[in-house]
């Protein structure tokens, strides 16, 4: 270190000589309490706001509104069926008119053909008689031929008139037939549109619950954590807790939208990102230590910390483990000047106020309290750790350290999702290293919680190309202008594949909630056309009750480790484990039977294409949502726990500390 920095530290030491190395004399010193702190980092887009109205709405929906909505949906279905029947009747009338006009036109063509044949016969007879009239051997023969020739010409003229009349009539009938055909096509398009409305009405008979999300397991555990006043209980114990809302959320407002706030949601960075959440957690911890010091006149005799996190919140919880390991400040001791060597990343520091200008406004003129003794991490409970900080989908988390060193905590439990395959949701394990890692059936938020009571999503099961039309035609007449026979052939091809997979019933019917739909997309060729596909879709109705299985598992393991949680209320809708899932609390599995998968496991990855044709458990849902796409490998990216710190990850911190020294 150069003479400049040495002189600076000497001056800083002199400037702080007046700070006593004792507690505040205005507060009578006493033996410090034992401090217990629970720290809860929620997942991306989640917060702890307990919406009692939403819970009541869900319960009401389960008891009453669901039935009312279904009744309304059935009424709508009946109306749609009537409209479809009317459209079908109109289409049948139009087709009947077409058949009638086509039959009449066919009869006129037969008559015209007969007249043409008759006229041709007359022409041949006229030729024969003309020869006889001009070359007869006798005058009588020639006179007879002339008389016959006149009569034949009259017959020919009448035949020509009749033929012209028939031609005009035929032209009129054919025009009416074409008009009827156009009406029939329009009626058929309307019938098919009504048929699609009926299909939608049938799907509406199975509605999703109100709301879009619920409390995560981290938020539920936060509410279960005990708390006392800073004066402590009769055992000299102080219990406090800290809740850190998920990245991408604003306090009391849920998910952020607009401007740079979206960056916190997408990248866990910048506004409402990790840069905000970690300082918030630091400050909350400092406030607790300050309040204990003010209330007791001394620092805690010991600090026991429990940390919980879900998703990116689990990543931040892991980083905060390293913040704690770097040292909590002992405010009863005299601060010492900070040098770049004495400031590990994540260390809590105090910045001088009065002496700031004295040292030329150097922002890095900082003091550090010595590390507090007897600080330990008792329990780290993680729900499916996902980093994806700044650049989603890789393991470079900038200056955030997700590594859990050996011996960093007495207990570490990591619950991992077995069925999440999204590209930007890679898993960071706790192994190699300490702790218990349990792989559970379900997607990311099936483990961490947060889904609405009953979600309804569409799964793309199969598709078949059925033709292309010009964009002008489709713009004029709508998508159902595609010939129905092509659509039927495409449907039949899909049904044959489904039959081969054993999906159809003995009667050849699709399972409940499976349905066909017509899909179209515009090509981006030089001459754009519309490509049509028949798609086999499947509505998946998924309850959120399975997330309470991981909740109970984590709660039990935390309580066994000594975490001061209240008992789970088995009558509380937020805690209830469905009866058909209760056995999984004691015996968790990484894959559920098909019936339970159908009922409880969510499909999280999204795609606009059919990825798993006719699979009973497809990996993707429809439609595509940005940031939620399937990993190109078709499986989940998994990163190991890093036991050793990578000093090269902290260039910004090193640069900050070296500036001006």
From TrEMBL:
Record InterPro entries: Tle1-like_cat
Statement: the UniProt record of this protein carries the keyword Hydrolase: yes
Region: Disordered, residue numbers: 174-200
Chain ranges of the T6SS Phospholipase effector Tle1-like catalytic domain: 216-454
GO molecular function: hydrolase activity
Coiled coil: 74-125
Alphabetically ordered keywords of this record: Coiled coil, Hydrolase
Descriptive protein name: Uncharacterized alpha/beta hydrolase domain
Native species: Desulfomicrobium norvegicum (strain DSM 1741 / NCIMB 8310) (Desulfovibrio baculatus (strain Norway 4))
